[in-house]
Design a protein that fits this description.
single chain; 317 residues; alpha/beta; 2-enoyl-CoA Hydratase, Chain A, domain 1; 2 domains; 14 helices; 8 strands
């Protein structure tokens, strides 16, 4: 059953009425409910379309966090053939929040790296809700170096509230691991493309997103800190998260206008969680186009352009 967000109450009510009418029709309590169901469904679809045309940044934050959005494993299952998972940082452990592996994307061998949040209680705990520990970022560095050795383009899918802030992670050098992973991205001499598919939170996101091309799904967010965290720091009041989200410019539309990202991937009406197949196809098309462009460039040019891209951010605002 569809999980509705707090601002979708009207949609939830209309679709609830549709289900009730359909149950009545199945039980034989009414002769013909098809016209009523069609009318309500049209009304629901129109209301959903109108609502999603004018989402504010806080509402987009809620959509970006929707538990039913497609995750890393969904993209791999749909877009990557012969996927071979790769695990471990060869130093401490395997972090399950960041998944890695190689496979074939539309006829081209690629290396995949991405956050995985999980889709039920057990898997979310297993993947630590997509919040990576230092070994996750050290695994990413190892995989990027492997990709460069075999001349494989790197695709990263970002979906994390941020790096894990636990004591153990800090003891094992969380900040250093994030910095090394960001450095590895910037030093790559193979094409690198990143897509923010949900939340792009803080250093936990940029550590695998310092790419030649960075795209965002239409209702994803990308920020230096979560709205709740920003509100707690700025006003010592986490309940002002909505105000923080509005002022932080975290939406795909804002970030494209500011030159932080290279493009926005449209989502189906009502968000990616309402149309997995469509958004996976759209993301695949954008990745295919970007890879085609980047694979024509030399390793030195890819590295130089990537570094210049990030150094230029904010200079012409």
């Amino acid at each position: 059953m569809q999980a509705y967000l707090e601002f979708e109450k009207q949609i939830a009510d209309l679709e609830g009425q549709i289900r009730e009418l359909q149950k009545m029709g199945e039980s034989g309590d009414t002769v013909n409910i098809e016209d009523d169901v069609t009318r309500l469904r049209d009304k629901s679809e129109q209301a959903l379309s109108d609502l999603y045309k004018k989402l504010d940044p806080w509402q987009k934050t809620q959509v970006a966090r929707h538990p039913d959005r497609p995750h890393f494993k969904d993209y791999v299952a749909e877009l990557i053939e012969d996927f071979q998972p790769l695990a471990g940082d060869r130093g401490f452990a395997d972090d399950h929040a960041i998944q890695c592996g190689m496979g074939r994307f539309r006829g081209r061998s690629v290396m995949m790296i991405g956050h995985e949040k999980g889709n039920d209680t057990q898997s979310r705990l297993h993947h630590n809700f997509g919040m990576a520990r230092p070994e996750g970022y050290r695994k990413s560095v190892r995989i990027m170096q492997l990709a460069e050795r075999y001349n494989l383009p790197v695709i990263t899918l970002v979906d994390t509230a941020g790096a894990y802030p636990g004591i153990g992670a800090e003891e094992r050098g969380q900040a250093e691991a994030i910095a090394r992973s960001t450095e590895a991205c910037l030093n790559l001499k193979v094409p690198m493309i990143s897509v923010i598919i949900g939340e792009g939170g803080s250093g936990g996101a940029i550590a695998i997103a310092a790419a030649n091309r960075v795209f965002m799904l239409e209702h994803s967010i990308y920020s230096v800190i979560s709205p709740e965290g920003a509100a707690s720091i700025l006003w010592r009041d986490a309940t002002r998260a909505k105000e923080a989200a509005t002022n932080m410019k975290i939406t795909a539309e804002d970030l494209e206008r500011l030159g932080i990202i290279d493009g926005v991937i449209p989502e189906p009406v009502g968000g990616a969680h309402r149309g997995h197949k469509a958004v996976l196809q759209s993301a695949g098309d954008v990745l295919e186009q970007a890879l085609g462009d980047l694979c024509e460039k030399s390793g030195d040019d890819l590295q130089r352009e990537r570094r210049e891209k990030f150094l230029a951010i904010g200079r012409n605002l």
